[in-house]
Amino acid sequence: MLKTRFDNYPKGRAFSSILGDLLGKGIFNVDGEDWRFQRKMASLELGSVCVRTFALQIVSSEVRDRLLPLLASVSTVDMQDVFRRFSFDSICRISFGVDPGCLELSLPISEFAAAFDTATRLSASRAAATSPLVWKVKRLLNVGSERELRKSIRLINVLAEEVIRRRSNLKLGSSASASASASSSSPSSLASSATGQDLLSRFMGSIHDDKYLRDIVVSFLLAGRDTVASALTSFFYLLSDHPEVEEAILEEAARVMGAGAGAIPSWDQLREMHYTHASIYESMRLYPPVQFDSKFAVEDDLLPDGTFVGKGTRVTYHPYAMGRMEEAWGSDCLKFRPGRWLSDQGTFVPESPFKYAVFQGGSRVCLGKEMAVMEVMCVAVSIVREFQVRTHHSRLPLKFAPASPPPSAEACPFASPAGEAASSR
């Protein structure tokens, strides 16, 4: 699906139809030449050293100036909410050069983030409909969830256009226009903080269609927000039940960075943290941010095991299930064991992307993989050096409590991350 018969397994029209109103012709919702063009452009930018350096600068400032001070000010907090706010601020600053300022728990989430949440949730719910005809009729009549979806997408479009206008003004050197668009009369509270290094400014050098740029804006948000937040939430959920892993990360950070607290790791330091890298990968093996992915067969095909796939068949692979297969990972496949990713010399050794499909593989392998892993590692190391994060497991209503001895994860090995409480180390 991802390599040898890649051309026979596109996303397909059914998928594009479900997410078309939200994603338009963004890279996650197209096939063929549109996909190849966007992927080539994204590959050139995301693979450059200057973009990765810029991204780490943004992430480091978010961690140092906002995330750590916020955690230091509380004893109990919903870490999933914190990570969603953090990742939204970070991806907006990296991709568009604007700062939503979401990482303030005293403030409501920005209207951009709220609209995006609603739109992604309702778009995904279309796939759960008993028939595509159901949501299509509701969209035609503009009723129920489809009316709410249309309202959210309309707001996303307004705010995306504002972001694009600001980037255009910056490129034209029109600081006065940029300031005017950020005035109180603006439909958004986004604050500009760009210097022209953001990804959108780079893309605007080759793309001059605002509708196309809008689709790219939404695609970047989809790629960089919930995936990073999910990975961080799952990691600290597991770390809470495995203090030995936490201690090993602390020891590695002290060896690489020095014993002093408060430092944010550099790119070179992160590259030396093999155990931390392994811990992040092990966490995503058990809790991949994207749990399954589907394609549609263009023509009849025969899978390597002899399974016949008819033309038009939906074929799904499931990284969540693949990461828990005993035949692939051994009898301890349900255990959180970072050591499985390390060589005898303690060096991180990745698995085949077709065994560990968290970042997909082949032609569709995630272009932002290194940037995302860097972001998660930077946050993880910085928090672990400053705080002890402990989960509070509970039934409804969900509550969060200060650090305490956690119950065994074996009681519910397939549970979704519930929430974490942070206490100062």
Automatic annotation (TrEMBL):
Recorded superkingdom: Eukaryota
CDD domains per UniProt: CYP86A (cd11064)
Annotated keywords: Heme, Iron, Metal-binding, Oxidoreductase
InterPro entries xref list: Cyt_P450, Cyt_P450_E_grp-I, Cyt_P450_sf
UniProt-annotated binding residues for heme: C366
Composition-biased stretches (Low complexity): 409-418
Cofactor(s) of this protein: heme
Region of interest: Disordered: 405-425
Keyword Protein biosynthesis: no
GO function terms (MF aspect): heme binding; iron ion binding; monooxygenase activity; oxidoreductase activity, acting on paired donors, with incorporation or reduction of molecular oxygen
Family assignment from sequence similarity: Belongs to the cytochrome P450 family.
PANTHER family on file: CYTOCHROME P450
Name the UniProt record assigns to this protein: Uncharacterized protein
